[in-house]
Amino acid sequence: MHDSKGMEVIMQAKTRTGVMQSATLESGVEAFLGIPYAKQPTGELRWKAPVRLEDSDEHRICDSFGHSACQFKDEVEPASLHEQGEDCLSLNIWVNGTGKTNLPVMVYIHGGAYFSGGSADPLYNGEHFAQSKDVVIVSINYRLNVFASIALDCLPGGEEYKESGYLAILDQIKALEWIKENIAAFGGNPDCITLFGESAGSSSQALLAILPQANTLFQRAILESGPIQLYKTKERGEAFTKEFAEIMECETAQQLLAKTSDELLAGMQVWCDRHTYEVSLIFSPTCDGSFLPLKPMKAWKEGAAKNIDIMIGCTEDEFTYFKFYFEDLPSFWHGQFPIHFDDQIDTIDWEEKYREAYPERDFGEYYTDFMNVTGFFVGADLMAEEQSEYKPVYNYLFRYKSRIEGMGACHAIEVPFVMKNLDTPNGLMFTGPNPPAHLAEQMNTCWYNFAKTGKPSVDGVEEWPVYTAEDRTHMVIDENEWIVKHDMRAKDDAVFRPMYSVLLND
User: Fold this and answer.
1) Which entry of 149, 199, 204, 388 is annotated as an active-site residue?
2) 25-34: average pLDDT
3) What is the pLDDT of residues 420-442, one digit of tens each?
4) What is the pLDDT of residue 8?
5) How confident is the model at residue 228 (pLDDT cuts 50, 70, 90)?
6) Active-site residue identified among 67, 110, 411, 474
7) Stretch 49-67: mean pLDDT, rounded?
8) What is the DSSP string of 23-80?
9) pLDDT tens for residues 363-393?
10) How far is it, in rounded angstroms, from Cα 334 to Cα 367?
11) Does the structure show a pLDDT above 50 at 41?
12) How far is CA 294 from the centre of its chain?
């Protein structure tokens, strides 16, 4: 913060786990980077649930991001190029230097299919958000891929690792516990916490919202492009683990534990090369029926998230993003689909239903539309409908088209607008050159207002109605207009809603 004469004053926040000292940015925002929120899961704590930190008076200068979780290096995933390590359980906090207190808190959970990503990605930097609004912005790291979702208890000697299949979610809960306990020291209101995030970050919220261990730690959630069925069964997790152990030439859990992180990543590469089209789901949390319910969507239907305010939405062309990773989209979706629906639905049958519903369309040309409908749109609408029985729900469709040919309104394109990070290299990778700054201001304001009041609103835009089973309204967001649409996906819902019955019933 700065005093009345404009002199720089370093902000200190006294927390239970130490005194945190900020780095003051040129914008006047105070940034607290790389704060540990749990004991680091190394050595004997690898593949164990995160452990609460002890009380401390240690002074910590918080001027750099913590390690990204272990993952493959990827030029389009900036967090993967940041220094990595298994000691990755850290969070970051941004707050403007006004000294205000009792501010709403917004916690960003990054995406990456539980496989990659991290809070060091410039796209998720909270500086511009905190600069423009009276808010405390938090981002978190959590464990990924084989370090977070492996059924170690199915191997000899693995009995004490029963939680190893859903460590990403346990890490997120531990981060939220730390935030709830300490955020007042940074000017935040611990009783006004909103989660937001895209893709796996959105699906994480969907799981956190139905868990009694987690859903008392926040009040609101903004689910951006994340289907709730981003998880795997215990049986699938065990099969994956046994194959991975074979690749690593390990027969016991102890032998796997003895491997270095580099050796585990090398083994994971072999597994990924064998299973190209399952990669983006196989590392998702394991629903074992004890901690995570076997059918998360059914838990939603039964009111497990009844106290959480929800805003949910998709982009219009979600799957065009994946064309840049997978040349053969049908093979990709054939690999994904069984995992999404627990092998209870045949992909081919639903492709035929699409052809019958839209005979005028060339199926090859419209395959991404089929994927959008079955992988995102119908599921998001169903979640909104089920939650609307308990709380007001707001549903959106982001329609702004990238200026890069072929991208359209792709998966994750809304993120640089929400965060006001249009000028980042990976933000421009989504939006293309000269993205509209006014749309970023609108999106940022809308997300902030929801976090502050529980209702999304933007000056000059018509009132956003709630979504109900009777009035299926979406706010359609585009570069130059925000328009309320009613029952815009009636045909898709009628054709494909039945597939989701397997997620709602025993």
Assistant:
1) 199
2) 95
3) 999 998 889 899 999 999 999 99
4) 54
5) low
6) 411
7) 97
8) EE-TTSEEEEEEEE-S----GGGTTS---PPPP---EEE-BS--PBPS----TT-HHH
9) 988 999 999 999 899 999 999 999 999 999 9
10) 12
11) yes
12) 20
Edge to edge, the sheet with strand 136-140 lists 23-24, 29-36, 90-96, 136-140, 103-109, 188-198, 220-224, 309-315, 393-398, 473-477, 482-486
Q: Which residue has the tokens 């809960």?
A: 173
Say what the pLDDT of residue 347 is: 82
Do the strands 18-21 and 12-15 form a parallel or antiparallel pair, or are they unpaired? antiparallel
Encoded tokens for 133: 């609004």
Check: CB of residue 368 under 8 Å from CB of residue 323: yes
Q: Coil, helix or strand for 247? A: helix
* DSSP state string for 455-488: S---TTS---PPP-SSS-EEEEE-SS-EEEEEST
**Tokens 């929400």 sit at which residue?**
418
Six token digits for residue 188? 């935040």
CA-based radius of gyration for the chain: 22
pTM > 0.85: yes
Over the stretch 464-492, which tens digit does the pLDDT of each residue have?
A: 999 999 999 999 999 999 999 999 999 99
Q: Would you call 44 a catalytic residue per the annotation?
A: no
pLDDT at site 349: 85
Catalytic residue flag (residue 318): yes
Task: State how far the Cα of 112 lies from the Cα of 43, in Å rounded to an integer.
Answer: 25
Burial class (CB in 10 A: 0-12, 13-18, 19+), 435: buried
Q: Which helix (H) or strand (E) holds 232?
A: strand 232-233
Cα–chain-centroid distance for residue 464?
Answer: 24
Q: Which two tokens stand for residue 276?
A: 């190209």
Annotated active-site residue in 30, 127, 163, 318: 318
Q: Sort strands 136-140 and 90-96 into parallel, antiparallel or unpaired.
A: antiparallel
Burial class (CB in 10 A: 0-12, 13-18, 19+), 205: buried
